[in-house]
Structures are given as structure tokens and as C-alpha cells.
Design a protein that fits this description.
Blueprint: E1 3-9, H1 13-27, E2 33-39, H2 46-56, E3 63-67, H3 74-91, E4 103-107, E5 111-113, H4 117-127, E6 131-139, E7 149-150, H5 155-163, H6 166-171, E8 186-188, E9 190-191, E10 195-199, H7 200-206, H8 218-228, E11 232-243, H9 263-277, H10 279-302, H11 313-319, H12 322-325
Parallel strand pairs: 1-2, 1-4, 2-3, 6-11
Antiparallel strand pairs: 4-10, 5-11, 6-10, 7-9, 8-11
Helix pairs in contact: 1-2, 3-7, 5-10, 9-10
Amino acid sequence: MHTTIVIVNYRTAALTVDCLASLAEHVVGRNSINVTVVDNASGDQSLTLLDAAIKSNGWNDWVRLMPLERNGGFAFGNNAAIRAAVEDHATGGQDRESASTDFVWLLNPDTIVRENSLDRLIAFMKDNPKTGIVGSRLEDPDATPQRSAFRFPSLGSEIDDGLRIGFVSRLLSRFVVAPEVSDIAVQTNWVAGASMLVRTAVFRDVGLLDDDYFMYYEETDFCRQASNRGWMCSYEPASRVVHLVGQASGVTVRGVVPKRRPRYWFDSRRRYFIKNHGTIYAAVVDAAWVLCYASWCLRARLQRKASYDPPKLLGDFVRNSVWLRGIAT
């Protein structure tokens, strides 16, 4: 079985090189794996640095660079390589560069792959033929697990996220998007795109990632479309991948003062709810979140609670809501 690994770089050449170095022991000497590094029109020295690293480390036979002419976002960058892999699957080439691809492993540039991580994902797929997507256990460099298996966002999850009251959270626990980390393999709604193995058959059945999402929610939406077609999504903690959270996007970096949330995050969230639930549901969800979060902000001020939310979050949310932006993306 052949696997194509896809890494999308946007001005993160050093991180991408570290990721490739961690992949070397998984790939060298195995004709069944190749890596495509997509450069999303970085406009910096990324291509030069990546090309030099590939040549100096002797990775030429298993890594290829795919420079794009424009930065169309995370899904757009992944799709460029996925499309080639799906076409290779259809033609059934036999050499390393064009071998028939059975799996595509989407991997963030800000990841370090632990021992046997890919093999365990592939083994899980072989044992579970109805599973079309499987994700790894993401973790900090010290092996502290990160929440990597999720439920689909809903009205209940948005109320809980905005309100932040203990007894309400307990009542809505079955809607929480990020449940506690599981130590065993489980079926889930969606997994983090930082490490997500997908059967080529799923892309051929469902289509590629929706590149109208610039960044965020694209993997959530893709897993939802796959679920709608009867494919299962699973989480396999035996596959371990270090994720340097937010290093690639700069939006979700932990341990620092939060960065103001970019407009594309709101655009992606709005698109997800409208696409999968309709405009009326999306408008209700927006109203619920705003009212609940405003209540939290008032309580936090009166009780002098610390807030770790991005600055200007409430105003930015309202400005980018379904009511003011409509169905625009």
C-alpha cells in the first residue's frame, strides 16, 4: 500500500525541515511512501531553504517540492498535492513518484513525528475497512497529550463556549467539541488536520477539501462530508505526533498573550454553519454565542476574572456574524 504525505508550508521553512527530518526514519528505504511539500506562495526564502535542506540531507528520492503561484489557504495548498495523488491512484503508476496511492497523510509543518506513527495509522486502517479517516494523538514535546478528537460544532457547544458556567457545561457535556483525551482508539466526529490519514477512496467519493475555507474548519467540514457518505472517522492514540500548537498560523499559540482573531477564522466558522446547517440555524447559533459570551464578559468584569480570550473578540464576532455578513465568505 502506498502513502503520500502532504505538508503545506507558508513561511515556516525551518519547521518544515524539522518535520521532514522526523519523517526520514519512516520513509528512507521504503518505496511505498513519498512526501510532497507544497509551498503556498510564501514569498520569502522558503523555497530556497527547503530545496537546500532536501539536497544536503539526501532526501531527493522521497521528497518533492510543489511551489504554488498564489496562497489560496490551507485547503487550497493541500488540494494541489491531494489532486495529484488521487489522479495517480486512478492511473496506477508503479514508480515511487507515481505509484498508486492508497492513503494521503495530511501533516502540519509544525509537527514532529514519533516512532512508528504512520505504521500505526495504516495498521488501524487495514483492521477497520469502514474507517475512511484516522487521526493521531497530538502532544506537546514533553508528551503531554493535546485534545485531538472532536465532536461537530453545534448550538449546544456554542452556548457552552460562550456562557462558561459549570453546571451548564455539565448539562451540555455531550455537545462539548473537545472531550477529554482518550487513551484507547475511538470513533469520533472529526480529528485535527495536523495529522490526519485519509483513504484515497474517500477523496474520490467525497471530493477534495473545500478550499473556500482559507484556514480553520476545513478538516471539520471534510470529516462531516465523509460521514454523510457513510465513512467512519477514528482516533488512534498509538500514533503519536508532537504538535507545536499555532506555530504555523500564529493564531492559537499557547502560553502567550492571545493574538486578535483574523477575519478568515470568522469566515470559516460562518461558512461551516451555513453550509452544514443552513442560514437560519447559523444566525441562531451566532445570537446564542454573542448573548452567552456577553454574559461571561460581564461576570468576568464584576468578579475580576482573568480573561485569556483574543482581544476585541466580542466586537469582531458581531461584525463577522451571519446577520452583518450574510452568507458572504
